[in-house]
Amino acid sequence: MNILDIIQNGVANGVQHLYDHSIEPSSVNLGGTRKEFEGDYTVVVFPFTKAAKKKPDVIGEELGNYLVAHIEHIERFNVIKGFLNLVVSDAYWTQFLQDIHQQANYGQHSANGQKVMVEFSSPNTNKPLHLGHIRNILLGWSTSRILEAAGYDVVRVQIVNDRGIAICKSMLAWEKFGEGATPETKNMKSDHFVGHFYVLFEKKFQEEYKAWQQSEKGQAIFAEKQKKDQDETAFFKAYKNTYFNEFSQLGKEAKAMLLKWEAGDEATLALWKKMNGWVYEGFDETYNKLGVSFDKLYYESDTYLLGKETVQKGLETSTFYEKEDGSVWIDLEDAKLDHKLVLRSDGTSVYMTQDIGTAQLRYKDFGVDKMVYVVADEQDYHFKVLFEIMKRLGEPYADGMYHLSYGMVDLPTGKMKSREGTVVDADDLIAEVIEEARANSAERGTIVDLAKEEQQEIIRKIGLAALKYFIVRVNPQKRMTFDPKESVDMQGQTGPYIQNAFVRIQSVLRKAGETDLSASAKYNKLEPQEKDIILQLFEFPGIIQTAANDFDPSHIGAYCYNLAKSYHKFYHDLSILKAETEEAKAFRLMLSTELAKVLKFGMDLLGIEMPHKM
Predict the structure, then answer these.
(1) Architecture of domain 426-605
(2) How far apart (Å, rounded) are the C-alpha atoms in residues 336 and 347?
(3) Mind listing the pLDDT tens digit for each residue in 113-125?
(4) What is 3-88's CATH topology?
């Protein structure tokens, strides 16, 4: 039983003994004491005033005396306006450090018997991964690692959007303008190569559209359709999709290609497989750079027909209803979600239909208790509807479905647009932050004596830590701006700052050499900086659980930063290798060792590697 449980049980016993009133220990409101007051933990006593029929300050005094008398680890207390602040003995904290020193995986929770699926990345095969994907990937990967640390059996999946008109645009552009080029002949990373043709299609389409706007037909449409006071530029901007579907030659060819794909035309399928193969090769290279992997990949080309059978069965049970035109809908007004189309009048599915079927397939594949979808906040409504539908279908995992919604990522220069080629590709961004790390390292000159390969590996770890930490430190729901230069700042709230604390510890331990730490058990008077660190180490398993419950890696990010900050202060304020006694030296080395372990574990949950020098 840890000190929090001990205190909560002690308070429950005290309330029973002092006021003849029974309460559940878990109901005791217990938190960390505010920095301006003495104490480690604070009990809120206001809930006991009715039973005690006494003022909060009096209750605080009586409970405080009871706890000091009955719990050996409570050394003293003070009462501030009805808040009971408790000081835990140094002996408890020094023993706690000894205990975790014996644990190989401190912070790792035992298996809880539950399985969770995390879907993330899920890109389109018409373009390379970009900055927005990076946030998705990092959130998905770190969330999956945190869930594992919290005791879940985790399955990582993605669904690849490998079909549809956007993919046909890339294919058509290569067929019309590619002249047989390949990634090898153009010396381009293969997914970038395919993305080039997606951008090229848009460029050619815009040229075609611009010419049509000035044509007799275009001007006639403008004269007929324009709204009052709408200028020509605004009209044609709004009319773009209609033009693509009704008049564009490129649009006609792209739609014809999609129909051929759906009909199983051999030549079209061969081109589709070839270009998608190039993209997958490029994706894998980027995933390897980021250090992420998946247990299973689903493909929309396999899943796009799923869900239709479920919809038909739902009609029989009146979960869904059919309109006169033959389309199928569900009424979710009682859940404040309006009516939702699940099958078109021609019998073709919509994304909702596919998602229903895909969820059922995944449950069949893995039997998960929870499904976490890492998808941008633009799809918030979609997932509310999906989850409500799954509940009404009686799916056993429906209550465990969660949308890890996240905000967009901007650069200091503004928003990005794939079709216009203004997106920052993931590979380019990774290269940029590594280059920033290289420049920073060269300026400091701290690793110039190492072999070139070792230098490159350290710089890679620093650059990726800068990128990953800067993104996951932000609450997922917040929109954010990524600044490559700021991300590598050694003095800011950054990955390299945290890595530096770990590297500092490694340097201390190397200088200490083989040191007998048994003398640390005799160290019994903690300095404030030491106690601050131990209390933070004590919180680590709880932080992991909170991050898992909230599906929010930023909890781990903030924790690691605060722990690193505390160590830098500890290192600055207190001597370690030249400590005043052998007991103090051994204790501080043990404290440094355990802090390094927790930092390494915590940053690993964020997908960040720790260098031993930097």
Answers:
(1) Orthogonal Bundle (1.10)
(2) 27
(3) 999 999 999 999 9
(4) Gyrase A; domain 2 (3.30.1360)
